[in-house]
Design brief:
Elements (H helix, E strand, L loop, with lengths): L7 H6 L3 H24 L2 E5 L1 H10 L6 E5 L6 H4 L6 H4 L7 E5 H4 L3 H9 L2 E4 L8 H11 L3 E4 L17 H8 L5 E8 L1 H4 L13 E6 L6 H9 L4 H29 L1
Parallel strand pairs: 1-7, 2-5, 2-6, 3-4, 3-5
Antiparallel strand pairs: 6-7
Helix pairs in contact: 8-9, 9-12
């Protein structure tokens, strides 16, 4: 039996002022260290950064944000977010909630508290889309919060075009308010933190990060509901659209990455 995580999501639902303060300190410490790694010790190029900054600072309060990206390294999160402007990076309330594998990030009490303070939600891989972690994300979307998800469902070490998990389809279909969805592709993270022992941070590597245009699901969701599409059909259609957008963005990012 693995570590018991049943207490974690109830704890995340009932945070105190002291907890929020500790969470702010955690975000600041991890964010600043990651920014040093990404922007000082390595060469990071970010395209369309204005898209994420606009999404964080200008979207209506009731509109939730979902970001989706490929997953090449255990440093992807927080590496991606370390490139944000400091006013967003250090604002715990604005920062993302992120699904994290329970058998990697939540293996004991100390690891659990660290990742909880970093607004990570333990997802049990293999338990499907109807589990408490996804329910919790939908609750947060209803409050206008930001959820990040790696829809490949694991670190894609061989960078294959993997079939995306349908959890992202459920989040978008069941969100109380149609979310703003921003796709992201990054390349080079696995050079900064390789997926092999001794798992040491590297320097002088090249990273490319590309934010795609937001995907508007309003018309698709209206059409799915008018056609009385069942939940399975809806999740598949939504996930397929995200997959297509990420594949197009991946091709553009690879081209830019080779030119640097």
């Amino acid at each position: 039996m693995g570590y018991d995580i049943k207490w974690i999501i109830p704890k995340l639902r009932n945070s105190t002022n002291l907890w929020n303060f500790a969470s702010s300190i955690t975000f600041a410490a991890v964010g600043i260290v990651s920014k040093i790694i990404m922007e000082w010790l390595n060469k990071t190029t970010v395209y369309n950064k204005h898209i994420i900054e606009r999404a964080l600072n200008s979207r209506p309060k009731e509109v939730p944000l979902i970001t989706v990206s490929n997953h090449h390294s255990c440093f992807d999160d927080p590496g991606i977010w370390s490139t944000l402007n400091l006013k967003n990076l250090l604002n715990r309330r604005k920062m993302r909630w992120s699904l994290a594998a329970h058998d990697i990030c939540f293996t004991n009490m100390w690891h659990s508290y660290f990742f909880m303070l970093g607004k990570c939600i333990p997802v049990i891989r293999g338990n499907g889309i109807y589990q408490e972690a996804i329910d919790f994300c939908i609750e947060k979307l209803g409050k206008g919060d930001w959820i990040h998800i790696f829809p490949e469902g694991k670190v894609n070490m061989f960078k294959e075009n993997m079939r995306l998990k349908w959890g992202i389809g459920r989040l978008i279909f069941e969100s109380p308010v149609v979310p703003l969805v921003v796709p992201i592709i990054h390349l080079g993270m696995d050079q900064v933190l390789p997926n092999k022992t001794p798992y040491m941070i590297k320097i002088k590597k090249k990273i490319t990060l590309y934010y795609g245009e937001p995907i508007d699901f309003s018309e698709m969701l209206i059409g799915l509901r008018k056609s009385n599409a069942d939940e399975v059909e809806a999740r598949k259609a939504i996930t397929d659209r995200i997959q297509n957008e990420l594949l197009k963005l991946k091709a553009a990012t690879e081209k830019l990455h080779t030119q640097l």
